[in-house]
Amino acid sequence: MQLITVAEYLFRRLAELGIENIIGVPGDFNLDLVELIEHDERFRWIGECNELNASYAADGYAREHGISALVTTYGPGELSAVNGVAGAYSEHIPLIKITGGIALAKQAKNLPLHHTLLNGAYDQSLKIYQQITCAAEILNFDDPGAQIDRLIESCYQHKRPVYLQFPQDLVTHLIAAPQAKLNLVNPTTTEQVSKIAELTEDIKVQISNAKKVVVLVGELVERYHLQALVQQFLQDSSAAYVVSWGAKGVVDESHPQFAGMYAGCFSAQEVQDYVENADCVLALGWLYCEINSGTFSAKLDPDKLIILNLNSGTINGTDYTDIPFVALVESLCHSHLKIAPYPRDFSANYLLKPEQLAPQIEHDNLIYRLSQFLQSDDTLILETGTIAFTSGYYTLPHGCKIVSSVNWFSIGYALGATTGISLAKSKGRTILVVGDGSLQMTVQALSTQLRYGLKPIILVLNNSGYTIERIFLGKNSSYNDIQEWNYLRLPAAFGGEAYTRQVSTDKGLVEALNDTKSHANQLCLIEVMMDKYKQPPALQKLADIVAKMKK
Amino acid sequence: MQLITVAEYLFRRLAELGIENIIGVPGDFNLDLVELIEHDERFRWIGECNELNASYAADGYAREHGISALVTTYGPGELSAVNGVAGAYSEHIPLIKITGGIALAKQAKNLPLHHTLLNGAYDQSLKIYQQITCAAEILNFDDPGAQIDRLIESCYQHKRPVYLQFPQDLVTHLIAAPQAKLNLVNPTTTEQVSKIAELTEDIKVQISNAKKVVVLVGELVERYHLQALVQQFLQDSSAAYVVSWGAKGVVDESHPQFAGMYAGCFSAQEVQDYVENADCVLALGWLYCEINSGTFSAKLDPDKLIILNLNSGTINGTDYTDIPFVALVESLCHSHLKIAPYPRDFSANYLLKPEQLAPQIEHDNLIYRLSQFLQSDDTLILETGTIAFTSGYYTLPHGCKIVSSVNWFSIGYALGATTGISLAKSKGRTILVVGDGSLQMTVQALSTQLRYGLKPIILVLNNSGYTIERIFLGKNSSYNDIQEWNYLRLPAAFGGEAYTRQVSTDKGLVEALNDTKSHANQLCLIEVMMDKYKQPPALQKLADIVAKMKK
Questions:
Q1: What count of other Cβ atoms lies within 10 Å of the Cβ of residue A545?
Q2: Is B474 within 8 Å of A111 when comparing Cβ atoms?
């Protein structure tokens, strides 16, 4: 039996998952662990300026790579990452949160240690993380290898974060090396297998009985790495399809069967009508949440809706539970189903045309110019705020996708996530559009990007504050203002070099985007000046709904 | 009966506590509340760039003012403040954490709202905050006024943070106005009163029987606003006294009876010997924790120790519980106790002399030059890290105090806290010494200080990374390095003006400190260049203890 340290056990599992960058912040309780990471050829340590940014970066890395590891110290360090990990929970992102914990031998002495709450307990962090993870454990001497495997498998299978507290005195403790690979497949019982066959037939019946069928592709298709399979299914079945707000780019949007983005009233009117007039909507991995449903304005008749979701769903008006999502989607995609084409007459009439663009930059300019700018393999990150409400309107080339925080909606997320996405991407560009208020939340992430030679193209929308809030309340209230920064001076202050340019006109925007091509070896920071009251149309719809509800 | 809104009820209570600045970040679930704050003449809204900084600022405001209010939105906003609030818990800081919550009517509909975890529950934040507060509630329609009072009284009496979630639909709900003022006095029963009299006599007996008595003044004396009383007691009783690490400046350190800072082996050797050779140590409100005890190196014989702590303590070797701290200290201070002088022969021999200073800046230069620079009413904030380990060595004029995070030890805290302390101070300067790694954590706080015209004097120690960690592990490991920023360019990047200067010599330091006097109308940022391996002696002692423990 080969004996290895618990740290090495964890490292082998992380390497097995293809994790090459470990993101975090050092601190006294994790130094032993971080020292080993630094000197391990399988990994690169990515030191962030703070733990919130580290958690966002780990979220971004997981979205691009499939899973990520985030290392902080006990107490202050891990508690600064709570928001980011909670966001990963809300959005179904598999992130392994590793905390360097107090040595168990030290805990047994019950001392009032620094980084503790001084109330005689050391398990508050565990209790906090239990609220925002699908599994949380403090490693102990009994069988830490099994604990590690249990946590990572849970993370991967449920696509939710897990919390792994690694006490100092376990780091070099010796245990048996793993005998087999991790089980990354969601387990399926014999009963479930026959039930899946049955449900697949039910779906085929419901779809064959319908004349106007549209497939709604949701973000969980991407989380479970089913994009290629689903794409093939869509083509083979000749189905018309749309994507959810949070699934922009998950399947090919340049394909003639693609009909747009659907999110209730946040959709283009043509797309909304098209989807809601179908007599069968097959929703695959659609995260039912406020934004994806257009603040619950989506009018999808339950009897006409087939939902295949995480272990639950609806077929023919009957709800089911306890069926593994992946296995059911695979079964359906392999079922040689043919779907009647559902013709549409709007043929992307809703898409922007250059003659509609204003000379001064508005949201439409960004949508149109960036849509033109995007290439296959690019990732476009759209920050929460006004910008997020343009998500559905981008025209994406095949292989290009949009990342946004569709439900957690934490401002500051996107700049942090950009670090992780840039790290994980093997090809294509990382392009971020971020608001000024959001950028101020997590601005240190720029420093990390410069430190590690990352080269995102960042468009900072300078619209003088929290524009998204002005539409709801406090149009001119000072709490919606922010300090006016000189954004273009940030890279130099952070000790890095970057291409920087401020633009306020459509012409300037086109030039600046073009300039980035000859500055591909640098981080590019473009400050986009915009009127502080400009809102994208989808946001106006939301504001109307909210105002109506208030009455 | 006067009817007022629940918001007004809360505001009256905050005003009653003298809170004039309400610190926070707006977000959709708290907009109604923040809009009212903005237009309320009793308050000034202080908008921070992010919630972690806001929580640190609220902690600082509470340290200076006595209590503070921190407002964020539900979900992402409040969860970004968890670390800061946990720190306030650990350090006994009364901070009212107010979250703008989801309307109760909306919660009842069980919708998958944005900013939620999408698992059908809305109470995870409450459960998280229950771990790091002394009381936590979501307001409801039954009796929200009573809830508000209960929470604030608990906060004030226990000197710990509380969590008050304020659902949107309660903001303008009408309730009866408060009939009486808040009860801010820790309640005392008749039984306790007689027990206090008895304990006071016991203390007097133990002290009268001792020949070498020293009073150890701890930070809880300040938290409970007992400084003036205790100072009078020390003078009247003619007692020799020392302060704990976390209580620097709580009592007059320029007084002849003052003998120094005591924290076990972190003390100057002379002070440690002096305290540990006493035959009676009267510890008033001493927060027993790792740093205050010199990593548990303090050798204080329990039989010779009188401890008056929060509702518990030790007198004559007997432990007691359930006695209100404030009432017992008041009783003792009013007991006309006379204490035999405990002479000492070191007469501050351990204090630095200018001829000992190196030409290039080391920690001793900072200690000596800042000690010279400090004036009555100044507050010196020392960040966690190498800098914190110099805390005990400053010579403070009467009325000047040091703020540091003595136990939570979260790097990044001090720059954030500086905002709140500057806001709350009515006279004297706010001076901060912060490390580069710490500053990078929360650098946006500088922007907030510039935005609101605050004028702290900030010394940034540029020692190329996490110097405190290099002494423990990874002396030359890259995870202890950070991105090299151009710190002096930060104010301009953040859209503000400041006096800036980089210094590396003792002479330059003296000049720069002197320059701040003619730039008193500006924020001053001094970059202090220091060798990356320079550690203060107290930190070396800690490293030795840790290395020994590892073996």
A1: 16
A2: no
Angle at alpha carbon of residue A269, lines to A266 and A271, rounded to 5°: 90
Which of A49, A56, A466 has the highest number of chain B CBs within 10 A, making it the mutation to test binding with B?
Answer: A49
- Nearest CB among B35, B291, B480 relative to A474 is that of B35
For residues B293-316, average pLDDT: 92
The answer to whether ipTM exceeds 0.90 is yes
Sign of the four-CA dihedral B106, B112, B114, B118: positive
Longest dimension (CA), chain B: 74
CA distance B231 to A94: 56
Q: Which residue of B has its CA nearest to A484?
A: B495
Hey, what domains does chain B have and what are their CATH numbers? Answer: 3-176 (3.40.50.970), 190-333 (3.40.50.1220), 354-550 (3.40.50.970)
Q: Do A407 and B485 touch (CB under 8 A)?
A: no
Whether residue B132 contacts residue B85, with contact meaning beta carbons closer than 8 Å, is answered with yes
| CB-CB neighbors (< 8 A) of A479 in chain B | 26, 34-35, 37-38, 45, 47
A401-403/A379-382 β-pairing: parallel
pLDDT digits (tens, 9 = 90+) for A335-344: 999 999 999 8
* Helix ranges (DSSP H) in A258-403: 269-276, 325-333, 363-373
Can you tell me the distance from the alpha carbon of B362 to that of B189, in angstroms, rounded to the nearest whole number?
54
Percent of chain B with pLDDT over 90: 89
Nearby residues of B121 by Cβ (< 8 Å), 6 or more positions away:
none
- Give the mean pLDDT of B136-161: 98
In terms of pTM, does the model score above 0.90?
Answer: yes
C-alpha to C-alpha distance for B303 and A1, rounded to whole angstroms: 54
Put simply, the answer to whether B38 touches A115 (Cβ < 8 Å) is: no
User: Chain A residues with CB inside 8 Å of B52's CB?
Assistant: 50, 52, 80
pLDDT bin (cut points 50, 70, 90) of residue B171 is very high
Residue B412 binned pLDDT confidence (cut-offs 50, 70, 90): very high
How far is it, in rounded angstroms, from Cα A298 to Cα A278? 13
